[in-house]
């Protein structure tokens, strides 16, 4: 880490924009500017760019580039806003770690109903403001047929509107009008909070932790992208074991984890 | 007698609404464009050089769902919640864009089942038109063939 920090500090001191391609997988710090592949050619060493014959110097073949979380557009370049590793897969993004959730459109989150006012529910999602949830945004809800939602209930829904200028709005229904598993989460169970990076790690398609956990005993888990996890098992003890495993697995190595699972499987 | 030359109509007259009803769309559009081009003195405009529109080819996307293929957030294991397990299969296969043809085949009724259903159809429709006393006959014989076999109850003459 010390070497990576030194390299990053050098680049900042030199204030030379690096090419995004060369920095893939390395640590980037906020404030760095990254060049996209096309611009590398133009700003290449010496007059190499000028030597290339261009019929239309103004119009370059522009390929759409998408910049993901942790990156912003500044002119023609990408500006890094979070510290972490730069990754690329269809789009460039920074793999960072944080605990505070910022609502993003389309994210599935677990919210807690805090108030019921008129036609909307106020749902706490861990962001800067409570999100609003209309009572018509449930499957099969009409003006006469209201959903059975009380204050203190857990809701699994997705964001319809989420930007820095407006209050976030969430719904428990998809664009076709079906619930798809969203709505009020059932009785009992335990809700606890983890870091956002752990949620993404657990929801990765090839996550071993989830596969091993699933073999222990019958259980149900709901992951919210806002760092909240709800678990339920047959007994309270099993639920607590599960919650402790999921919280601790962030800082465990693979071996430690396997030890714990084998001990659990014995008991 | 036919006029040798058409009477020339003024431009303003031609621009009037009733004269334009007969024109086709193209000529109408051309006339509209010409009208717009004429900038009279009262029409205000900015006396600046044309600014080149900055076409940005970088799109910002704040969601992690495009970065990594994440699984569906609700999970259930070892049959704890069967509905959620069904949902898991559905949503995760949607992500991988698999075809879900198997489900539709199961929903179809097989031919044998259809034939069995129609065998008893006679009984069920017959039930509808039977009188109340005869309906009891249908219910008794539901296991086997449904036939209203029982004879009607007639008046029994008392034997002296």
Can you describe this structure?
Chain B: InterPro entries: MPP6. Chain B: This is M-phase phosphoprotein 6. The complex is a heterodimer of chains A (267) and B (160). Chain A is α+β, with helices and mostly antiparallel strands. Helices cover 24% and strands 28% of the residues of chain A. Chain A has helices spanning 2-14, 37-42, 48-51, 196-202, 208-216, 236-248, 254-266; strands at 18-19, 27-28, 33-35, 65-67, 71-74, 77-80, 84-89, 91-95, 108-117, 120-124, 131-134, 154-161, 169-171, 183-184, 190-193, 219-223, 228-233. In chain A, the strands form 4 sheets. Chain A has a 5-stranded mixed barrel. Chain A has a 4-stranded mixed beta sheet with strand order 1-3-6-5. With 160 residues, chain B is mainly α. Chain B is elongated. The model of chain B is unreliable at 98-105 (pLDDT under 50). Chain A binds chain B through residues 36, 62-69, 71-73, 76, 78, 87, 89-91, 93, 102, 104-108, 156, 180-181, 200, 203-205, 210, 213-215, 217-225, 232-234, and chain B through 55-81, 84, 87, 91.
Properties at a glance:
heterodimer, A: about 270 residues, alpha+beta, OB fold (Dihydrolipoamide Acetyltransferase, E2P), Ribosomal Protein S8, Chain: A, domain 1, 3 domains, 4-stranded mixed sheet, 17 strands, B: about 160 residues, mainly alpha, 8 helices, elongated, KH_dom_type_1 (chain A), RNA binding (chain A), acetylation (chain A)
